[in-house]
Amino acid sequence: MSLIDRLLNIPRFVIFILIGLAVFIPLLFKFLLPLKVLKPVKDVYDFIESLPEGTPVILSFDYSPDVLPECYPMSLVLAKHLARKKLRIYIMTLYPAGAGFALDVYNKILKEFNLVERKDIVFVGYFPSIAATILGIGEDIKNVFKSDYFGVPFDEIEAFKGVKNYEDIKLIITISGAAIPESWMVYANGRYNANVAAGVTAVMAAQLYPYYRSRQFIGLIGGMRGAAEYEKLLAAHNLATKGMNSISLANFVMVLLVILGNISYFLKRRRRK
Amino acid sequence: MSLDPWVWISAFLTLAIFSFLFKDNPVYKFAEHLFVGVSAGYYASIYWHNAILRFIVKPLSEKFSIFYYKIIWPEAFVNISTVSAFFSFIMYLVPLSFGLLFFSLLFPRYSWLIRYPIAFLMGIGSGLSLYPTFKARIFDQVKDTFLPQFSQTVYFLNSLIIFIGTFTVLSYFFFSKEHKGPLKAFAKVGIIFIMIGFGAAFGYTVMARISLLIGRIYFLIHDFIHLI
């Protein structure tokens, strides 16, 4: 078998091992490859920076465990930024499996930043109907957030004082691996002109960029790369930053394999002629 | 190495799923079936606690208790009249009864009743989403495509590329006229834009899948064997 034939018939498991190693090896080292922060991510950061202390902000965890490696790092870094800026954080989820992650981030932020429960941060839990919930918040949050996740009634929650609807809630950040950011964009921005930022998986990012360009999203954080860019902005290097080295090497291996495969294919075709 | 049994279970299941990369095997099948079962149970529990219990059972029982006490002991709950207690109970009972009609599908003789909640949902869904969907997905997008941004040269160039891309891709999907002459040229340019779009989407998808692999490998070497 010639070299060209061998290249065209690389066993599948060899490719899996190569990709596995390309992901595994960079995780062992602490070096950081240079990373440029792109405008869609910077816009989210700048918008949060521009908000005065105590401004109500919704952070919605609209994802399930299958997209955890992409969505969790951005959830954590965004929550840290909101807490660092001392904004009033309303944590919620429109995805049933998102409640667990939301609660996890809620507890972490509460402890790390010494926040006061139901004053600086409130976890309102999961809401089953996406459109009804988003539109309901646009009318009066009292009709939607009747109590927090732990059953404390609306009137006893200090974080809700003086807040009625999107006119008071200056930013909505939705983190998702599905189409929920589009629902926030259609209902909250389309109907109430609310400011919506989205943190989405890389698969979803390409689909949502047109809405960022038209300013229907004030900013967009796409995939692990977006999360790594945000970690860089906040100087809080975590899993996303570590993962970027692996992504770069794995992409390099894949591009190399594609080039080798194409060269071999064309050489074989020419030889046949 | 971790001493937490849950981390061991998690690591075993991760490796069991990865074993499929070699070939299909009973360990993989076990992990797959376990995942399906656990997911179904987990979602049922989430819906029960976060939706049914929270939005139906608790408020309904609360409203019913108030109404019931008002009947047997009219002096109770001085701020609430018996009529308002009755209506606030009914406000929950009527939508619940309407929703329960979905289960009529289980009884062939009464399955026609399902049309009412479906019709209601379709009506309310269309009514709620018609205006915002048109505005967000069509009007705002068309406006952004056809109104170039002149603030910087690079933004103007971007607007120009987007305009050409939109126009030529639409030409490619215009089938009312045979693709000949200028239309053929536009369609050819449109294909290039479509391919670039597919390429970008594919690149992002690859990055997303690698991210998932990173998540699992990081778990194995960080949480399980404490290598880093």
In helices, the fraction of residues of chain B equals over 70%
Q: Which residues of chain B form runs of ≥5 with pLDDT under 50?
A: none
Task: Tell me the Rg of chain A in angstroms.
Answer: 22 Å
Instruction: Tell me the major beta sheet of chain B.
Output: none
The class by helix and strand makeup of chain B works out as mainly alpha
Task: Give the DSSP E fraction of chain A (strand runs of 2 or more residues).
Answer: 5-15%
Give the low-pLDDT segments of chain A: none
So what's the overall shape of chain B?
extended
Question: What kind of sheet is the major sheet of chain A?
Answer: 6 strands, parallel
Q: How many extended strands of chain B?
A: 0
* Terminal residue distance of chain A: 19 Å
What amount of the residues of chain B lies in strands?
Answer: under 5%
Instruction: Tell how many strands the DSSP assignment of chain A holds.
Output: 6
* Topology of chain B as a string of helices (H) and strands (E): HHHHHH
Distance between the termini of chain B: 11 Å
Contiguous helical run count of chain B: 6
Strand order of the largest sheet of chain A: 3-2-1-4-5-6
Oligomeric state, counting identical vs distinct chains: heterodimer
